[in-house]
Amino acid sequence: EAGGGDDDDNEGGGGDGGGTIGLLLPEDRTTRYESFDRPFIEGKIGELCPDCTVQYNNASEDANLQKQQFDAMLTDGVDVIILDAVDASTTATWVEEAEAEGVPVVAYDRLAEGPIDAYVSYDNERVGELQGQALLDALGDEAEGSRVVMINGSPTDPNAAQFKSGAESVLEGTAEIVFSQDIDGWDAALANEEMNAAIDSLGADGFDAVYVANDGMGAGVINALEAAGINDVPVGGQDAELAGLQRIVTGVQTFTIYKALQPEAEITAEIAVRLLRGEDFAELTPDSADSPTNDGIPSTLLEPVPVTLDTIEDTVIADEFYAPADICTAEFADACQEAGLG
Amino acid sequence: MSDKLAPDPRLLVRERGLAGYLEDFRRRITGGELGSIPVIVGMIIIAVVFESQTGTFLSPRNISNISVYIAGPGIMAVGIVLVLLLGEIDLSVGSMAGLSAAVWAVLSVSHGVNDLLAIVLAILAGAAVGTLHGFFFAKIGVPAFVVTLAGFLGWSGLQIWVMGDEGTINVPRDSLVRDFNNFYFSDISAAYGLAAVLSLGYLGALLFQERRRERAGLPTRPLSEIILRVGLVAVAAFITAYTLNQHRGLPLALVIFLVILLAADFMIRRTTYGRQIFAVGGNAEAARRAGINVERVRLTVFTLASALAALGGLFYAAQAGGASKSLGSGNLLMNVIAAAVIGGTSLFGGRGWIWSALLGTLVIQSITTGLNLMGMASEIQYMITGAVLLVAVVLDSISRRTQRTAGRT
Amino acid sequence: MSDKLAPDPRLLVRERGLAGYLEDFRRRITGGELGSIPVIVGMIIIAVVFESQTGTFLSPRNISNISVYIAGPGIMAVGIVLVLLLGEIDLSVGSMAGLSAAVWAVLSVSHGVNDLLAIVLAILAGAAVGTLHGFFFAKIGVPAFVVTLAGFLGWSGLQIWVMGDEGTINVPRDSLVRDFNNFYFSDISAAYGLAAVLSLGYLGALLFQERRRERAGLPTRPLSEIILRVGLVAVAAFITAYTLNQHRGLPLALVIFLVILLAADFMIRRTTYGRQIFAVGGNAEAARRAGINVERVRLTVFTLASALAALGGLFYAAQAGGASKSLGSGNLLMNVIAAAVIGGTSLFGGRGWIWSALLGTLVIQSITTGLNLMGMASEIQYMITGAVLLVAVVLDSISRRTQRTAGRT
Amino acid sequence: MTAAPVLALHGVSKRFGAVQALTDVDLEIRPGRVTALVGDNGAGKSTLIKTIAGVHPIDAGSISWKGREVRISKPHDAQELGIATVYQDLALCDNLDVVANLFLGRELRTAHILDQVAMEREARELLDTLSIRIPSVRIPVASLSGGQRQVVAIARALVGSPEVVILDEPTAALGVEQTAQVLDLVERLRDRGLGVILISHNVADVRAVADDVAVLRLGRNNGVFPAAETSGEEIIAAITGATDNAVTRRSLRRDQQGSEAEPEQNTDAEGAGEETR
Amino acid sequence: MTAAPVLALHGVSKRFGAVQALTDVDLEIRPGRVTALVGDNGAGKSTLIKTIAGVHPIDAGSISWKGREVRISKPHDAQELGIATVYQDLALCDNLDVVANLFLGRELRTAHILDQVAMEREARELLDTLSIRIPSVRIPVASLSGGQRQVVAIARALVGSPEVVILDEPTAALGVEQTAQVLDLVERLRDRGLGVILISHNVADVRAVADDVAVLRLGRNNGVFPAAETSGEEIIAAITGATDNAVTRRSLRRDQQGSEAEPEQNTDAEGAGEETR
Ligand SMILES: Nc1ncnc2c1ncn2[C@@H]1O[C@H](COP(=O)(O)OP(=O)(O)OP(=O)(O)O)[C@@H](O)[C@H]1O
Ligand SMILES: Nc1ncnc2c1ncn2[C@@H]1O[C@H](COP(=O)(O)OP(=O)(O)OP(=O)(O)O)[C@@H](O)[C@H]1O
Ligand SMILES: O[C@@H]1[C@@H](O)[C@H](O)OC[C@H]1O
Ligand SMILES: [Mg+2]
Ligand SMILES: [Mg+2]
């Protein structure tokens, strides 16, 4: 189906002409969306379609606000919408509305329900599995029968549940989960308190590894471990945040999960531009995904990558996600030297 | 001389007729009694700025969307206005909205309870929660701020618990809740009819009242004032109706919101119960000494506020497309309270009107929608919303300052 | 007879000595004047329950942790107490804490500004923000609720903007901010020394005051009362010191918090400025007529509250291990306000004391920590926190009710 | 003292914190009689009438209404019995207009809907009889002058049909003309057979309208006097508890004649006797 | 009228919304003289003195202090000039204790630190001179009786050393003894050379202590009379603007003798003349 609404002034149509692509991202407090996803997508669209404009909105984790932003896109007459849903399971009616107006929707990162045209993502379950696996790997021989503390994401964030269940699926059987807590709003200070509670109730020797759902909370967790003088247990998060990478360099954090955002963003951008122009994009979506409402959605599912001290060079630095200079600021210069970075 | 006093010579009496009305109006304006004018002027400025920036702000589609969006927070704001009139606050309305959506969704979707029954039960759950708040506040004497702060935490915990393993429960296609967001009376006579009913009803009410006053020998408003007032209402109503008909017609959400506004307005201005609310908010001890059952007034107002929050929560679920663990968290609470205050209801009790729920919600929603249309970065949205909120009230405050009469201590 | 009146025969005069003191105490308790007893009893119950459930709640390590956790919210609560004494509210403290952490982190870490200077600048930024709030409130007359609600939105937008591309910035190892969470005076003489200074200082202050009163021919407290009061303080101080020394010693965070508490307490009870805060909070118009510069008092209190929030934000960053875009959002604001109220400061102005910041924060933090130790699911945590918050205040409210004297209208 | 008391207090005590405001107070109010309640500042007059009005409960003692013991635990109870009270602090709702204050708690209405027109008309009539000029009956009472507010509070007591009217210093803020009107009003109430309690510091007014004068001193009874047979000096002596007081000294100084200011001694003795009872 | 006025108002007008509370009012206060300001309820007396005290600004007219025109835009300005005011509504902070209220805005202190002991001692002395019993100077004024509160408000005006003292119905809630004390106090202030404005509805008190009587009627001047040479009836006639009023009718009824209540006609005429000027 060719893109472009029928009532908009800058008619998208076919060919190389311009148009408007709407980009809806779910939140603004973690680094990725504002610092990576958005610039990568905007950049790629600009490159592929210089006459295109991108209309951007961020929903600050508010599903209702995102619905209004979605409506605003339709009011503004955008030709294609890229949707990273706050709550992917409630979007069916929105997407139907867009479909009725002839505006195709690409689901980004989270599998939005409803008749979407394409889906590009990392698999959240998979992220969790990798996190669990990375912990077990770090424990090495001691993995069998090890005791793991889990500091999970927000109870109201559907992704958090997927991370958690992915990790559990790997850990269970091998390791024992001795403490598991969800943290409201992914709050690092609360994570710090929960970690202290874990240390207090289990004792400093009462656990062998710490699963922490993301790097943001990792800061608070590691703070608690250090304060208790515990520096020999593996700890890992996700997102490959700069602060997390720096901790990996100094050895206080063991791993993070790197979701190479650039390919994810750029593939999405390209699909969106092709939808705008009414071109075929089958070769961009080799996979297929099923949502509760729709089956056989053309998809690209990318593989997340665990990052440890040994693999920083080949992953985030190789991808130019961060330059060595970003990571190796004055404070970390020595540690970088030792690790052979920068 | 003392049995029938002459009118006070110091009272600057209004001339009869339109001239007198306008003169009186001018005097109020220059004296700083701006009433709701700042908000209305603010609304106009907001509309003009956004329209010039986006070209779509005043489109029928957007106006129609806004009229649907305001229903949920607006209904909740009506409850907050009532609570503010008491001089109290209810911090739990956001959590209550979320809890209500969860209750409805779990009952109706997961347990197969009849949809309408589930809606009623969700609202009753709200009423029960409000009664509980009212009990602790009115009977035990715990400050309402603390009671509802406990509620803010407790009910959102309960919401997450009620939702159980489901992160989100979708609104079924055939549910009335879906209609709260998606149903429009598409026959154009619906919108025009409502506009006509509102205008004529207002006219009738005014004429009836003035007739009675005249018969009782009390001062009356000039006919020209009545015509002017009704005229303004009619123009606003018909323009809105026309615009809505350009899109999909009259939204059910707007109808429900208007009915609630009219009912609440009637209640607080025309019934003894409403009078009691103002009295308790103005001076609770004086109200008690006048024989008013202060505890009952407080208890029932909190019941109403929570019930309205519960209803508002269903509109939220309708809009998002489902009930979730996070529905009602975030800025909802603050937005609803801000709406009531921006609309002109005092935080200190005893002063305000129901229509502030409409005006304030409209201002806040217009800003959000306008910024969405402009595709403003979210942190900039935060800052602009904060700034506009401030400006909206600054105008009012400045005018009140010039007028301030250094009343009693 | 009229030149020197005999003491009023209706005054139930306290006997001299300990017996009189205890009798008076008993009379107050039975009369419902419980003061801070409910909170303290509540604390004891909380401690006993959690200790019996976890076995680690009263461990030196946990006590030490709690004493560090309370510093951040406690310092912010001191600011809120000041604002509440004015009869106002500051909804922006959470956003301000986040903004301050962002300002410090960006200056110090990203721009290489000297660490201490960056800390001072962050706090000054807080003061500037507070002055701005104060300006709109005191000079323009916008209700503080609205001003700080705008701030709540605006400053958190600015926080995100200041953080720029970074979601999180780590606290450097050598930063003073890290010490806010991690530094302990491990020499046991530090904790004991502080306990001794506090106890002796209190004793000295009481003795000095009573001496002056005696000389001026005013009624004095019996020596036994002084000994009892100082004794209680000394016992509490030394037990805490002993416990802290069992773990890592006296935390820097606690020292800073105590210094702020003592300074603020002195300020509001012993200086003209403090007196003015109470007067404005009790009756602003009366204060104005007494020649008090009401605007200045309001402006400076908001300045102080924001500066304290800024400092508190740095403690949060220290605890979280870094500044982030989401620091200070969530329930921080509500917890801080709840702390001040639970501790016994009225929401309605003119009544309260600084120590409510300590007591209230301690209650809330104890609940959170206890539930963390028990590994309670977070939705259950919400519900329990809500319930305990309510119970903590219910006790107080019931006692006040029996005592309520149906004062003036 | 012909009619049986409509309201009788016996042994009433009331404590606020460390202040014993009332100790063992008796008082009887009879229909068709005006009982003045007098006493020094802080004697406990307002506290006493507030216990009757249900503002605060009594600690000890009993209240009987038409011979039957009653419990008055809230203002509504007192109103139900037929007691209307004008408080010293007026107890008006500053945010409400004059009409709303006048009818507060007793609104004229059809079903639950207010009859604004009827209330406004009656309000105007009521205020006219008290010859007060109020700029408009539709402005909030917050913007009225002290005397205007007081008249509104007095007028409130006349809405409804009470059997006992309590007036706590009703003329304190009133002008000469309004004071005269209120005294007329008190007499009209008495003539209609109501029991009236009048608290006042103005001994002349008290002697002019009261039938009985009950004196409170330091929270205790200090005698009840028939107004007609008691001189102003006697009343003042019972109030102040001393014959040598600022009043006598002042008049002594001004009049330069000592004999007139010499009151009788027995009043005080009697009072003192009751006090130590 | 020997000394030059310390305070002079000329052509002062003040409007509240639709009410023209003051129109073109003149007033002169001289040192060592007591000027009584009288008028009916709502005449504008409190509004007038509030403009002097800086509570609210005037719309038109001028205020001169010792011959120099001044702008009084806030209470602090008036205090700086040396004007102390006792307001009709007292303006106390209910949450503060008696001592704190007495010294509010003028705390005794070293540097910025309160000298609680000195303040408490002085407070006790001050209250003793006004012969009021207050249970304790350390209880919040909210729990005081009406008269006790009023005495606290009056005592406040004596803290510091004002040159003009304004008393708005200072004895309204006071007992006979306390009233006498306050009248003594007014005389002491006059004798110390202060200018005193006394607002009162009690014509006897006014005639007893005032040197001049300024009458306000419906927000306008209605004449200034020398107290010594003006009868109570004349003053009342100027206040009510009529010779036939409730007061005269009441005394007529009671005394059954028409001749005494017949006041002179010229006062009212003079008043009316000014009114229409
Ligand atoms: N803040 C205000 N807003 C509106 N009207 C006011 C205000 N203050 C006073 N007025 C009006 O101004 C007039 C004069 O009031 P003012 O208080 O000066 O009277 P007054 O002479 O002191 O009377 P009283 O003897 O009863 O105290 C009154 O009619 C009153 O209603
Ligand atoms: N709510 C209260 N709390 C504490 N003490 C109170 C309270 N109410 C009254 N009192 C005390 O009780 C005593 C009697 O007060 P009350 O108001 O009854 O006096 P009163 O006779 O009406 O005096 P006045 O003539 O001054 O109005 C006073 O000493 C007062 O301080
Ligand atoms: O990447 C994570 C994201 O998926 C989740 O929704 O929020 C927290 C982030 O760390
Ligand atoms: Mg009294
Ligand atoms: Mg007055």
TrEMBL record, chains B, C:
Top-level division of the source organism's lineage: Bacteria
Keywords from the named record: Cell inner membrane, Cell membrane, Membrane, Sugar transport, Transmembrane, Transmembrane helix, Transport
Protein name: Xylose transport system permease protein XylH
One family name in Pfam for this protein: BPD_transp_2
InterPro entries per UniProt: ABC_transp_permease (IPR001851)
Lineage of source species: Bacteria, Bacillati, Actinomycetota, Actinomycetes, Kitasatosporales
Localization (cell): Cell membrane
Record-level GO cellular component terms: plasma membrane
Function: Part of the binding-protein-dependent transport system for D-xylose. Probably responsible for the translocation of the substrate across the membrane.
TM region positions: 34-54, 66-86, 93-110, 116-137, 144-163, 183-205, 226-244, 250-268, 297-318, 330-348, 355-374, 380-398
Species per Swiss-Prot/TrEMBL record: Streptomyces zhaozhouensis
This protein's record includes keyword Metal-binding: no
Membrane topology field: Multi-pass membrane protein
One annotated GO molecular function: transmembrane transporter activity
Cytoplasm found in the keyword field: no
UniProtKB/TrEMBL annotation, chains D, E:
ABC transporter domain: residues covered: 7-243
Record keyword ATP-binding present: yes
Record key words, sorted: ATP-binding, Nucleotide-binding
InterPro entries linked: AAA+_ATPase, ABC_carbohydrate_import_ATPase, ABC_transporter-like_ATP-bd, ABC_transporter-like_CS, P-loop_NTPase
Ranges of biased composition (kind: Acidic residues): 261-277
Lineage: superkingdom: Bacteria
Region (Disordered): 247-277
Molecular function terms from GO: ATP binding; ATP hydrolysis activity
UniProt-listed Pfam families: ABC_tran
PANTHER family noted in UniProt: CARBOHYDRATE TRANSPORT ATP-BINDING PROTEIN MG119-RELATED, SUGAR ABC TRANSPORTER ATP-BINDING PROTEIN
Protein name in the entry: Monosaccharide ABC transporter ATP-binding protein, CUT2 family
Provenance organism: Streptomyces zhaozhouensis
